[in-house]
Amino acid sequence: MKAALIREVESVKKIRIEEAQLPELSSEHHVMVNIGAVGICGSDLHGFYDPKSMARIPGLIMGHEAAGVVTEVGAAVTRVKVGDRVAVDPQVICGECAQCKKGYYSVCDNKKIIGSNLKGFMNGCMAEFAVVTEKQCFLLPESLSLEEGAMVEPVSNAIHVLNRVKVNMGDTIVVIGAGTLGLCIMQAAKLTGTGRVIVTDLSEKKLALAKALGADIVIKADEDPVARILSLTDGLGADIVIEAVGIGATYKQAIAMVRKRGSIMFFGATHKEVSLELIPILHKELHLIGCTGAETECPVAIDFIASGKINVKPLISHRFTLDDTQEAFETMANPENDAVKVMLIP
After folding, report:
1. If 0-12 CB within 10 Å is exposed, 13-18 middle and 19+ buried, where does residue 56 land?
2. Predicted pLDDT at 271
3. What is the distance of C-alpha 263 from the center of its chain?
4. Are 76 and 29 in contact (CB under 8 A)?
5. What residue ranges are annotated as transmembrane (predicted)?
6. How far apart are CA 92 and CA 105, in angstroms?
7. Which of 205, 174, 248 shows the shortest CA–CA distance to 335?
8. Is the pLDDT of residue 323 over 90?
9. Mind listing the domains of the chain with CATH numbers?
10. Which of 288, 298, 231, 297 is nearest to 88 (CA)?
11. N or C, which end of the chain is more exposed by having fewer CB within 10 Å?
12. What confidence tens digit (pLDDT) does each residue in 76-118 have?
């Protein structure tokens, strides 16, 4: 099969299109999926371009936001059949640890992610075919395209963020960052009964998209968003701030713009470490809530996309064939392109 693999060329990671061995169904619960669409995540981008990162290493097939058509199933598979169109949940969980037994699948003690080496080497979906477990497959209605199916993963993550915090009717929610996840989170937040959702970003194009998708207020990130938020909330601050960028500066903004005893959702993770001032966290008695992956949100994500409650089509800003994966990464990495979701079509 054709696949996009990371190779090291003169000490620099590059993507090469190669003929790779077709993966095998090594378990009776495995499913072969002919990949129809796979998105490039920010974590792919950062892991690929960071020479020190061990999350995306040479020899790996990336890709964890995917959808396709089932072409083969193991003997014990009952959840899907050949010909089914499915979205793929990239999380491989054990189902046996203390966290899984509580239903906390996103923090499974033994979780691995396809297309990543972060928690153990597992090839992903930037290829013509991928093998996953049947539990990772979620049926798509005929009304959804495979591109929309590939957006189920980020939408399920966005819903999980909102499920992790108590939202009261009338709350002010700020989303820092208008990338794919920020725009999905913004739309999910609009479904919670919140009073208003405010989005901040440096890109005027992305802010215009946020506004078109339902954001109540958008703020340029270089126009003192902290002061704007405090002004809009009579000096109190936002009830909930969701950080979807992942750098120290925006986490500091989140602390400064949230109200006393407010909640900050820690979601963005561009950098492995950030430095934060401790005193305002203590003296404002803030709730800091970490977020990763999803638990049972995939079916909800599919329903929200299919019903139009969350619109993912405008988020797909660029499309490339699998042969042009290197160019796709370069396009997404160039800020002049204002890329939101770059989609590969194997």
Report:
1. buried
2. 82
3. 21
4. yes
5. none
6. 9
7. 205
8. yes
9. 2-154+294-345 (3.90.180.10), 165-290 (3.40.50.720)
10. 298
11. N
12. 999 999 999 999 999 999 999 999 999 999 999 999 999 999 8
